[in-house]
Backbone:
């Protein structure tokens, strides 16, 4: 069975999140149980602000790639950095999962990511609701420290039972191996130099470390807020119930997140669980920047601040294009932030944007996943009573109804046509808000869905569209066909109350003889 | 304890500022009045504290501040002890100079605040030891503040005794000029001071704890552990260093 499954945490949610699924390990009778857990710090609950961690994992074709990034407090909106570097790393490592990069190679890539990220951070306009002291502090932080994150990332080869691990800063990894000890297993905690940082400012040292391990039984990567989570893979200490028990306590101190991949003899039940009845889907305040007319940014800036720091952004003539590339290239967090920036740049600071609404307009969603078969969707648009808004920049594969200008609260109905090619995404604007539409590929017919988490071999051969079940046996070694793979990303999944299988493991912390640790990449302070 | 407690939202650091706003603070230092230097330094201090307390947009109440400006009598300019997130809402204070210098009365007010605050501290979790940051530009005109200051320095908390830092604004306070603020190690011996009142302040200044020195070093300054928490501030860079020291309570990442 070939499948590619991606799961990511939702920084905006105040609920504990837990995902679990299995992929077959090629060439054997084992499965790899993949799990992801997340709970933002309780500090963010009161104001409903996004958590600073970001966890993402992708598995399929005998490989698992996971990244946990921890946005650095005291840096400029560390959650931006965490999301950006995690998503970029995941894509990069997934593409190279069969021949993972060396630390030296990845070092260069990470600096490229930093440069790309910097342009986006430079364009971010602070919400006008912030008090002058906080604006001053944030602007200074942006210039001096930038948006920073630390991370742990791994590539697991399920056939070879080997991993390549990369770490920057104090993110942690616990690697469980099956040799070197008389009892047949051992585990150890791996942490890079805690001073390492990935930053939009580009002035920090990454101090990237690469670690290679063989005979792996499991790996857990986590943020420092996860404390001793994953030290044991014993079923009663490492499952959904255990995570939901400790997550609220951990969240009292910090964000907590982890990604794990553990070899098992049996397939785990799929779990997509969130405490309570689902996520709070209201966008966090940080992402919603009103576009009402207000004092100009210059006039709202503290008098002691140099005015140039309030005029971030590309040249006006290129602003629209630059911003769109910004929105497309980043994850949801940046897209949301971009909505605000767009509003500010076009609605307030500059006057050249033709349809800039002179009032507050918000849409109920800013990112919409669509199945390959196409769909018709309806979104709520909220606007002040006499506030006019319209829809612009609609791609040819999306039809809008109505297209004419509206005012006040309303609904937007749009139809997405069937996708017969590779996955596609584009955006259009609703009253100054950017709405991103992502439609999955449909190489094998119109049956796939972004909500369908598993596309198995039978589907690829045109058989009946069935979800993989617990009865399915591990597949023999699959011949990888990336072009035919279906990737599904689930960020805001509904609660599923599936039973959970225990994860067998008996480990203890000892030294591993099978580890090769590459020399840290020296860097020169920029 | 060795001043190892970390300032967090649950264990905030308490810092009481005693700010001399006597008439002499209107005198010029490097082209602007001393009081204006202080206003600017306070703004930079508050910005730094906000930075050190910020996660995303959330400002954690890692610092609790009291500001007492004194001349003829002490004035509680914030109206009590406030957390840094509350001060962001209040906005930065702006001081102006007036009248004489009753330093002892200001220390008395600070002592009373500390008594109340320390009495409310539970055994766990342990907050950082409180600090008094006293800024002045010269001799007191009322009673001698030293006995009260010494009393304060004996006040115990689980993290250590109350710390007192003195910022003395004025020219020619040291026997050797301080050319490089960034590399200056601090006042280690009383004979490094040339001014008599500076020597008096030396005696009511705490030794810089190692954990604070580490934070200050990360800011780019060279102050050494054990140096007196006394900054002879003959220029604006030293005033800034002095206020940086007052916000150097260790915090988590």
Residues:
């Amino acid at each position: 069975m070939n499948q590619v499954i991606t799961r990511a945490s939702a920084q905006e949610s105040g609920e504990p999140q837990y995902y679990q699924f299995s992929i077959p390990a090629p060439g054997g009778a084992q499965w790899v149980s993949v799990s992801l857990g997340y709970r933002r710090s309780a500090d963010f609950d009161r104001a409903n602000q996004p958590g600073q961690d970001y966890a993402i994992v992708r598995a399929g074709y005998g490989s698992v790639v996971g990244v946990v990034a921890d946005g650095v407090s005291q840096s400029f909106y560390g959650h931006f950095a965490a999301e950006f570097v995690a998503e970029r790393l995941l894509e990069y490592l997934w593409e190279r999962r069969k021949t993972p990069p060396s630390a030296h190679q990845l070092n260069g890539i990470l600096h490229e990511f930093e440069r790309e990220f910097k342009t986006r951070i430079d364009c971010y306009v602070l919400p006008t609701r912030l008090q002058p002291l906080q604006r001053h502090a944030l602007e200074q932080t942006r210039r001096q420290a930038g948006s920073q994150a630390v991370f742990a990332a791994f590539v697991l080869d399920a056939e070879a039972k080997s991993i390549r691990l990369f770490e920057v800063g104090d993110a942690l990894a616990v690697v469980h191996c099956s040799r070197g000890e008389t009892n047949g297993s051992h585990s150890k905690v791996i942490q890079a130099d805690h001073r390492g940082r990935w930053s939009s400012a580009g002035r920090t040292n990454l101090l990237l470390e690469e670690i290679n391990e063989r005979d792996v039984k499991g790996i857990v990567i986590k943020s420092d807020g996860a404390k001793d989570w994953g030290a044991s893979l014993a079923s009663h200490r490492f499952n959904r119930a255990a995570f939901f028990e400790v997550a609220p306590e951990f969240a009292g101190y910090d964000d907590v997140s982890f990604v794990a991949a553990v070899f098992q003899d049996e397939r785990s039940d799929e779990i997509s669980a969130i405490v309570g009845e689902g996520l709070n889907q209201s966008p966090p305040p940080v992402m919603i920047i009103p576009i009402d007319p207000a004092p100009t940014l210059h006039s709202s800036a503290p008098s002691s601040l140099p005015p140039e720091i309030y005029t971030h952004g590309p040249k006006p003539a290129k602003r629209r294009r630059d911003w769109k590339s910004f929105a497309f290239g980043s994850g949801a967090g940046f897209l949301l932030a971009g909505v605000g920036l767009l509003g500010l740049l076009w609605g307030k600071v500059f006057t050249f944007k033709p349809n800039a609404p002179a009032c507050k307009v918000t849409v109920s969603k800013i990112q919409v996943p669509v199945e390959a078969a196409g769909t018709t969707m309806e979104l709520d648009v909220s606007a002040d009573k006499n506030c006019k808004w319209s829809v612009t920049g609609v791609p040819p594969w999306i039809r809008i109804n109505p297209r004419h200008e509206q005012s006040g609260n309303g609904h937007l109905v749009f139809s997405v046509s069937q996708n017969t090619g590779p996955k596609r995404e584009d955006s259009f604007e609703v009253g100054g808000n950017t709405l991103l539409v992502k439609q999955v590929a449909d190489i094998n017919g119109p049956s796939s869905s972004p909500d369908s988490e598993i596309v198995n071999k039978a589907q690829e051969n045109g058989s009946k569209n069935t979800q993989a079940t617990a009865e399915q046996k591990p597949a023999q070694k699959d011949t990888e066909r990336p072009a035919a793979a279906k990737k599904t990303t689930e960020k805001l999944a509904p609660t599923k109350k599936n039973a959970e299988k225990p994860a067998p493991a008996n480990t203890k912390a000892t030294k591993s003889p099978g580890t090769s640790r590459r020399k840290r990449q020296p860097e020169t302070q920029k | 304890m060795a001043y190892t407690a970390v300032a967090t939202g649950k264990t905030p650091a308490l810092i009481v500022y005693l700010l001399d706003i006597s008439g002499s603070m209107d005198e010029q230092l490097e082209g602007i009045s001393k009081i204006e230097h202080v206003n600017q330094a306070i703004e930079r201090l508050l910005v730094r504290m906000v930075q050190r307390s910020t996660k995303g947009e959330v400002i954690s109440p890692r610092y609790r501040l009291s500001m007492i400006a004194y001349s003829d009598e002490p004035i509680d300019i914030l109206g009590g002890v406030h957390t840094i997130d509350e001060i962001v809402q209040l906005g930065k204070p702006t001081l102006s100079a007036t009248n004489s210098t009753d330093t002892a009365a200001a220390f008395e007010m600070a002592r009373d605040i500390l008594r109340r605050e320390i009495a409310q501290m539970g055994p766990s979790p342990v907050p950082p030891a409180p600090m008094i940051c006293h800024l002045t530009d010269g001799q007191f005109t009322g009673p001698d503040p030293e006995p009260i200051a010494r009393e304060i320095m004996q006040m115990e908390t689980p993290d250590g005794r109350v710390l007192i830092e003195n910022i003395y604004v004025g020219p020619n306070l040291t026997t050797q000029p301080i050319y490089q603020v960034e590399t200056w190690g601090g006042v280690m011996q009383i004979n490094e001071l040339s001014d008599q009142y500076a020597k008096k302040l030396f005696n009511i200044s705490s030794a810089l704890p190692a954990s604070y020195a580490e934070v200050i070093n990360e800011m780019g300054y060279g102050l050494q552990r054990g140096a007196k928490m006394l900054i002879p501030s003959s220029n604006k860079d030293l005033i800034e260093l002095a206020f940086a020291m007052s916000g150097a309570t260790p915090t988590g990442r």
Q: What stands out?
A: The mean pLDDT of chain A is 70.
